[in-house]
Amino acid sequence: MVSGSASCTRPPHPTLSVLAFNPLNLGHVCPPFPRVSHLLHTPLLAYPSVIPPNTRFSSDIMISVKFILASLLLVGVGAQTPNYLSPVLIEPGNNAGKCLTAASNSNGAQVSIQACTGADAQQWTFDGGSVKLFGNSKCLDIIDGVNADGTKLQIWDCSNNGNPNQQFYYTGDFRDYFCSLAWTDHGKCVDLTDGNLSDGNLPQVWSCGSGNPNQVWNTGYHVSNLPDKSQNDQSGTNSCGTGSSQDSQCQTAWINDVDDFCLWAPPYVDTIGNTERVEVAWCTKSGRGSRTIPEGTLQGVHFVKTPDYVQVTGVGDFTKINIPNGDEGGELDPHGADGKGNPIGGLVYGNTFGSNLQYHEWTSFISYNEFCFRACTGPNAAINCNHIYDVMGCWWNMPANYDAGVFESCDADNDLPMGIYGTSTWYQGVEPTPAAHPAASSSNCQSVSTVSVTPARKCRGLERRVLAAAPN
């Protein structure tokens, strides 16, 4: 969502606001045209809720729903592609460490799930309504064009005449809509067979289903093969090198521990609201090509690892990283109002849930004296890293320890999802505003005396580009 300063207000949609505490649940629907509904700013189609049987909705709500659906149908499908620039990895939503992989560069080669390595057999290009591989010579293909649940995938020479077996579209980048890779005009989606993440599992096509986690597919990049830019209109770079510079335009961040994380902040002195699209990474580790957080900036840092996310919160003097004194800041996330993210092209990686894993869902707030940053993984990542409460700040979105003078790393339970209260979902701007959830319990806390800049630890083999052969 669009972030901004604390003075920013966004009134709720005059009709849809009545859904607060009694939300209309259309399930995890990925509309064919997510940009239209996203502009309503009210996530009508986004989050799960439980509606009592025989619940009746007023006519104005139903008119609004019909208006939304009609608006979506007027736009036209077209060949939709990810916002990330190709070539990209295609990863099941439940695990960013696994990738859609061709067995070889031969007609009929099976497409399976394998550990992500960045190999050529995993570098997919969305082009002309097809999903291409190996220098655009091969295309993702439905075996024999069989329009039946359970049909597997292969690669085949790309057709020049729009072979319908090779036509796919990506339904959007707004993960709050749980988007899919769909077979064009067939009502089928690429599906992780049985939800099995084991290497060698063969994905299939299956009838597209609302909220089916096996049909969620992210796109992204292997850390060994980061692009110069991952988005159109990006101001900085993702291929940041191994040095460090206070003039760096690096937009690749990391979050690993109390002494190993990055913050998004301006490249020059200005408010977060004015610079949200161009923020750069300021990090506690040197050697990743980013700027480093100056000594004396961090005055308290609290890191937690939960079953589904990592989170770092704290206080400090962030005028040292170009945030003006008194700026209450704003929210940053990988979506923004147009799916490109704030900052545009900002990528986040970590080693907590797998080596060099890309976090496709994250949310961060920062002001002149406080910050919070959460990066989520797994099937509930979009809910745990909800980004729609963009004027509510750190304490409401990420209840945690913000004490000064303490630097600690803990294990913790998941917090309750922001904005969800039992069977109801609260939407920003609707009165009354509910209290924040209490912080989840934590344990195994380890303290350090302070956090200062130190060199990043190098992973063996990380510095060389992966050129491994495709799996047999």
From TrEMBL:
CDD domains the record matches: beta-trefoil_Ricin-like (cd00161)
Gene3D superfamilies: 2.80.10.50
Residue segments, region Disordered: 224-243
Stored InterPro entries: Ricin_B-like_lectins (IPR035992), Ricin_B_lectin (IPR000772)
Ricin B lectin domain location: 86-220
Name of the protein in question: Carbohydrate-binding module family 13 protein
Source organism per UniProt: Sanghuangporus baumii (Phellinus baumii)
